[in-house]
Structure formats: structure tokens, C-alpha cells
Amino acid sequence: MINLIMNDILGTPAILVGLFALIGLIAQKKNVADTVSGTLKTIMGFVILGAGANVLVQSLGKFSDMFNEAFSVDGVIPNNEAIVALAQESFGTETAMIMLFGMVANIIIARISPFKYIFLTGHHTMFMACMIAVILKTGGLSGVMMVLVGSVILGSLMVLFPALLQPYTRQITGSDDFAVGHFGSTGYFISALIGKKVGKNSRSTEEINVPKSLGFLRDTSVSVSLTMVILFFVVALFAGPSFIQNNLSGGQNFLVFAFMQGLTFAAGVYIILSGVRMLLGEIVPAFKGIAEKIVPNAKPALDAPAVFPFAGNAVIIGFILSFVAGLLSMFFLPIFGLKVIVPGLVPHFFTGAAAGVFGNATGGRKGAIFGSMANGVIISFLPALLLPVLGTLGFEGTTFGDADFGVVGIILGNLIGLAESNILFIILSLVVLAILFGIGWKQRGGNNEQEEEATEAG
């Protein structure tokens, strides 16, 4: 029964988001037709988003195979799904319990604190629960105490990271309707800060001047298609026709294969954006019920692609430059005595694209460029630094890919290593969380003052 609830219901992001929409619509006393329609459209939006992600991931998988063949890359490849799957055999029950009670903790903290965010990215909740379980159990905690501590940590992270990003999320969307709930937030936050520093008077990526003869490039789908087709062509030429035609294309000409894979990638992006638009169109109104009845003023914290439609050019710039920074980082990691982290296309696309959007919001084109490159460096070095604290899982050839896993894992792993007893570790963890809540509270106060001043000036 626990497996059914945790893995098949709460572990399925579309159903989880749909359940929250259902609760919100019921709380608003909507009629049956509106409730059914709103719930199903919310789930469909997430399913469409997931379908687009699958199309995109399949295309990126082919690109990764070609890239590895072309440049003989060898090292640790970050992949959240892979390392969680490996961990489930030894840490499955602990992961499920921390995830369940972490979600409860999220709602309680949102209810009693100023941080009114409900984290709805279910798969990332599971990934973080898994990493916390691995580190706590490896460090000597077990049983009820481990689940309790892990749940409080997880629930706190589920409100803190959306709160950290919210001032910049508002800049991106022009509203306060939703937050970003994705454990790549450290990279997005740093990208936004870099944009502030370097992007003074820099124009937005969405204001790129295109000659009339190239006006078709204003269509995001066309520009993404051309960019990815060129990238696939270049890598295909280095990988060689024999490898591609014998191992990937089933005999199809390698250039035709590269062309179609570039278009497949673009199709995946288009599907993702369509799913996001449908999801936002339903979940934001439905969430008003939760805000009114359960957690006053609650905001849904949604997956990173929720911001993609607001800056389509920044999405592609962010992905490409984050990946380039990851490639460059490969040469520097051994200098610091760290394992080589092979840049994974999936984390670099989703987090690099989001970093580009956040950098563009605060610093225009310069912010998108330098912010996304910073993200690429961050998600190269943090996974390498995380490996030692994962115990035996750190030797499996993969690791967690997004920035927040590295930050949280390294802090937790070192705290539990420094503490001489479990009680001391728990106290230290609570102190760190209290400091983070204090910083967030102070930042929130400053933002509120700025908003009030802006309102008065208007």
C-alpha cells in the first residue's frame, strides 16, 4: 500500500499536481464539470510536458552517444534518475517515508511561516528525499529519528529554494502567480546575481535584431531547429558515418539522421512549451482554493520549464553555453584532484535553459550568457565534490546532476562527518536551517519594502 501511494501516486508528478488542482477546485466549491475539467487539464498539461521531455531526452541521448564517440569522453555522468534507481534497493523504504512526511512538513511550514510555497515537482522531491536518506543512513542515523530529521530538512528545502528565487521569478513572469520549485535553484540564483552585476543596459535576448530577410528566425521553433541541426551536423561529422549508421540510425544516412534528430529536439521543446501553457492555465486558478482554505496566500512551486515560455531565446542560449562551460570544466576538474564529470545533456538543457532565463531577467543578453556559463561550471564541480559523501553510491559511475543536490549533499555530508554524535548533527542541521530561514525572512522583508516604495511612487 505504501509503495502504491509513494511510487505510483505521489511519485507520478502529473497525478501529484492533479491532486492539488482537485483539492483546490473542491475547496472553491466548483461544480462537478469544472472540477473534472480543471483536474484533467492540469494532469494533461503535465503529461504533455513529460511527453515533450521524453522526446527531447531521446534526442539528447543520441547526441550524447555521438559526442562520446567523436571525442572519446570518459568519466562520471550525472543523472538523477540513474542514481536514484541504484539507491532504491538499499534505501527505498527510507526514501519513501522521507518523501511522504517531507511533503507534510512542506504544507505545515507553508502554513505557519511567511514562505507560502507548495513544492509540486514530485520527481525532484523524490530525488532529494533519496539523497537525504543515503547521506543520513551512511552517517549512522536510522529508524524514526532518520525519517523525522530527513522530513524536516526536505520540507524546509521545499519552501526555501522557491523563496530564494521568487524575487527574480516575479521579474521573469511579471506576476506573483507561481514560484519555481526545482532543485537547480542555486544555479538560477547565481545566474540572476551575475546578470545584475554584468548586465547593466544590456538588451533582452528576446530583443535580438533580426534582418527582414531572416525574419523567420523570430519563430522560436525555427531558430531552435536550425541551432540544433547545425550542432548535430558538426558532431556527426566528427563521430563519422560508420559509427552512426551501424549503431544509431539503423542504416539511415548519417547526415539525414542528424538532420532529423535536430528537428526532433526542436519538436520536444515545442511540446514542452505547449504543456507548460496548459498546466499554468489550469493550476494557477485551481490553486486559489488551497490558498483560501488550507495555506492562505499559497503559491504553487512548479518545475523549471514553467519559465521557458517567457524567454525562448534565453532557453537556447542558456542550454548551449551551460554545456560549453561543462565541457571546459572537464579539463580543470583533474587539476583539483576531482573526478572528471562528463556534461550530461539533460541537466545542462533544463538547468542551463532556466539559468539563461533568470540571467536574462536581471541582465539581458550578458546576464543570460555569463549566468548560464556559471551554471555549467557549478553543475560540473558540485557533483564531483558530492561523490565522497555518497558512500558506496559514489562509485557507481553516476551522481546527482543539479546544483541544489550538490549544495545540500555536501553540507549534510560534512555536518554528519564533523558531528561526534547524532544529537549534535541534528542540532547543527537545525541551526543551519534556522539561519537559512532567517536570511530568507530578511530578504523577504527587504523585497516587501521595495515593492511598497514602488507602489507609493506609482
Care to describe what's here?
The protein has 458 residues and is mainly alpha-helical. The chain has one domain (2-440). The protein has 14 helices and five strands. Strands 2-4-3 form a three-stranded parallel beta sheet. A two-stranded parallel ribbon has the order 1-5. The longest helix has 42 residues, at 345-386. The chain is globular and about 60 Å long. Mean pLDDT is 85; it is low at 448-458. Pfam families: EIIC-GAT.
Topology:
Elements: H1 2-10, H2 13-27, H3 32-71, E1 77-78, H4 80-112, E2 117-119, H5 122-138, H6 143-173, E3 179-180, H7 185-198, H8 220-239, H9 241-247, H10 254-293, E4 299-302, H11 312-332, H12 345-386, E5 398-399, H13 403-418, H14 422-457
Helix pairs in contact: 1-4, 2-3, 2-10, 3-8, 3-10, 4-5, 4-6, 5-6, 5-13, 6-7, 6-12, 6-14, 7-12, 8-10, 11-12, 12-13, 13-14
Q: Would you kindly provide a brief summary of this structure?
A:
With 458 residues, the protein is mainly alpha-helical.
Overview features:
transport; mainly alpha; phosphotransferase system; 458 residues; Ascorbate-specific PTS system EIIC component; cell membrane; transmembrane helix; 3-stranded parallel beta sheet
**Tally of individual helices:** 14
Structural class: mainly alpha
Largest sheet: 3 strands, parallel
Find the count of extended strands (DSSP E, 2+ residues).
5
Low-pLDDT segments, ≥5 res: 448-458
Distance between the termini: 56 Å
Number of domains: 1
Please state roughly what percent of the residues sit in beta strands, choosing from under 5%, 5-15%, 15-25%, 25-35%, 35-45% or over 45%: under 5%
- What's the SSE pattern? HHHEHEHHEHHHHEHHEHH
Compute the CA-based radius of gyration: 22 Å
Mean pLDDT: 85
What's the helical proportion of residues? over 70%
Global morphology = globular
Widest β-sheet, arrangement of strands: 2-4-3
